[in-house]
Amino acid sequence: MASTDRSDPIRLLAVRDTPLSLDEVFAAVGDDAAGGSTLFVGTVRDHDGTSGAAVTGLSYSAHPSAEEELRRVAEKVAADFPVRALAAVHRVGDLRVGDLAVIVAVSCPHRGEAFAASRRLIDDLKSEVPIWKHQTFDDGTEEWVGC
Predict the structure, then answer these.
(1) Burial of 67 (0-12, 13-18, 19+ CB in 10 A)
(2) Which residue of 12, 76, 91, 96 has the lowest C-beta tally within 10 Å?
(3) C-alpha angle with apex 98: 68 to 12, nearest 5 degrees?
(4) What's the pLDDT score for residue 145?
(5) Does residue 3 register a pLDDT over 60?
(6) Residue 52 forms beta bridges with which residues?
(7) pLDDT class for 73, splitting at 50, 70, 90?
(8) Average pLDDT, the chain
(9) How many CB atoms lie within 10 A of CB 71?
(10) Nearest Cα to 129, choosing from 66, 86, 78?
(11) What does 67-82 look like in DSSP terms, one character per residue?
(12) Measured between alpha carbons, how far is 11 from 15 in angstroms, rounded to an integer?
């Protein structure tokens, strides 16, 4: 859901089953009053971050309330920081190693604010938005993460 209302700092929020676009997200946070913009990209890596086991693929699932929760998280970040523009998109479905899983971007008057707001946005998205990861490993085992 993209906003065309330039007075609303939340410009793009989505949970989608199609490939994500860096250009789309970066363009969404363009703002002439912003001196700093950050872009965070989460990709599917070839190993589990905790165990180190080799990952062959993963699938993300989302609760029907995921976009509503994403909006709640985004609104809180926009209220707590001088955000000029904000965007966040997360992928669901089957992904391969190297695929883009999540992109967040924030524009603020200054770079420090943009870094802090972006960090809060991705951290809160990961901890509060009901999106779960199912990993498969090269030894045939699997696990759910974030449930």
Answers:
(1) middle
(2) 96
(3) 25
(4) 84
(5) no
(6) none
(7) very high
(8) 94
(9) 15
(10) 66
(11) HHHHHHHHHHHHHHTT
(12) 14
Alpha-carbon Rg for the chain in angstroms: 16
Residue 144 to residue 117: CA distance in whole angstroms: 28
Closest CA to 133 of 95, 97, 107, 100: 95
H or E segment and range at residue 14? strand 10-16
Give the Cα separation of 112 and 129 in Å (integer): 25
Amino acid identity of residue 46, one-letter, is: D
Strand ranges in 17-141 using DSSP code E only, listed in sequence order? 36-43, 55-62, 85-91, 93-95, 100-108, 131-137
Three-class DSSP category at 112: helix
Examine the pLDDT at 4 and tell me if it is beyond 60: no
Q: What's the confidence (pLDDT) of residue 2?
A: 59
Longest dimension (CA), the chain: 51
Is residue 6 predicted with pLDDT exceeding 70?
no
Q: Residue 38: what residue type?
A: T
Q: Measured between alpha carbons, how far is 49 from 12 in angstroms, rounded to an integer?
A: 29
Work out whether strand 10-16 and strand 85-91 pair parallel, antiparallel, or are unpaired. parallel
Tokens of 33: 């009053």
